[in-house]
# Entry
Amino acid sequence: MSTKKTSSSSSSKLLPAVLAICSVLVVVVAWSLPQMIPPLFDLHPPRAHPSKTMAAMVYQTHGDPSVLEYDTQHPQPIPKAHQYLIQVHASALNPCDFKQRRNPHIPNFVSPVPRIPGADMAGVVVQTPQSSNSKFLVGDRVAALIPYWGTPWGTMADYVAVDEAHLAKLGPSLNYTEAASYALTGLTVLQSFANLEHDDSLQGKKLLVHAGAGGVGSFAIQWAKHILQSAHVATTASAPKAEFLKELGADQVIDYRTEKFEEILLDYDVVLDPMSWLYEDRSLQVLTSGGHYVNVVGSDWAFDDGIERGNGPTTLINFITSKVRNFIQPNSTPKYGFVGVSPNGAQMQQILDAMESGKIRPVIDRTYHLSEAAEAYRYLEEGRAKGKVVLYHGEMVKQQQSNAAEDDTGGEEKVSHEEVVAADEGAEESHEEKPQSATAEHAEVQAE
Ligand SMILES: NC(=O)c1ccc[n+]([C@@H]2O[C@H](COP(=O)([O-])OP(=O)(O)OC[C@H]3O[C@@H](n4cnc5c(N)ncnc54)[C@H](OP(=O)(O)O)[C@@H]3O)[C@@H](O)[C@H]2O)c1
# Structure
């Protein structure tokens, strides 16, 4: 009898402790779950405006570029209380856009349709957040990478809602197409190099950048050579692009069609690999045992049934092997890291400042009008772009472009970058007069 009493009284004493521990666990899990969601995922995307519309590129179903439609009556986003409304003047294309668009297996909460593609943008602030101490003002020229998972909103539209933490300001000599060009790929490079374990400096080091002629590669070569002062930058590309890559700062260009880089390069400190599905194992061979392999998590441009062709188990095996071997004996084998790019206003500012100072040259292969985005993606999806493919937005610029196209005798470029820059500057002048009226127009959106 007395034993029973003792056990029931001790269990009643334990109950509050168990409840307290459970409550703490629930709080910890509830707090940490959102922290685990990458910043590239927008958990609460802006709502659609019930009556205000805008021009936007949109797809309703997954598929090839033919699913893209130019909708001039698409709802505008209503910025959240802490967000800015930006009138977009230029946006850039990235492979992640079309990989997302082509893949019919992505759950709708991860990539909702109807979807506006695009994550890179430059434009002008037309509405500031409700708080009085906002960092940017109406009329400021800004650029950003915005989150591209979990949201139906993208930058290939006349307006986009953007968090303050993702924005950076353009210097006076940068135009919108240049400023938009290297948002996602530039941030990928900054974050790749910042993530190098133990050492974020490339000064005096030997670096191999794969696919040097692409959006990631053309920025990485310049950043490594002119900002981080790498001693030697080697890159892989097709032969016709070698001279252009040397102008950007590459010391050595390996023609991947006729040469094997692993037979030529030795004792490299870092490999930045946007082509890991093809080059991962061979890249590990050219590194010193204490070197760094940075997997940019690339997958093939062409893939079957919407499924990306990546590296699968090879990557996991290499990653685990590197961790285990380096744990047992530090620097016994190359260190292995991944990068998943995130929006970051401070780093975006570094990119814009480097372009403004002339240390980094925006490499724009082709420019198209927003309404021609399907054609622009068809070009990007061939996998041969040299630098970036950029869209310019707006009727006035488009008008100037079609006038220019009438005089065009048919060069390779769809529209020359210089022509867009000239029109772009015209657009900037016209915006100097516009912001106040645009603000008035959008203030009522906030009120609703
Ligand atoms: N994890 C992340 O956060 C992240 C961020 C950015 C990009 N990525 C991924 O990284 C990859 C590259 O992106 P990107 O924007 O640089 O692509 P991109 O601009 O479309 O790259 C095109 C370039 O790739 C070059 N190329 C094609 N095959 C090659 C080969 N076998 N060897 C060397 N170069 C080759 C082409 O040059 P040639 O004409 O000379 O062949 C072309 O100039 C994509 O898969 C993308 O999804 C991931």
In short: The longest strand covers residues 47-59. The longest helix spans residues 2-36. The two ends are 69 Å apart (CA to CA). Residues 367 and 415 are 6 Å apart (CA to CA).
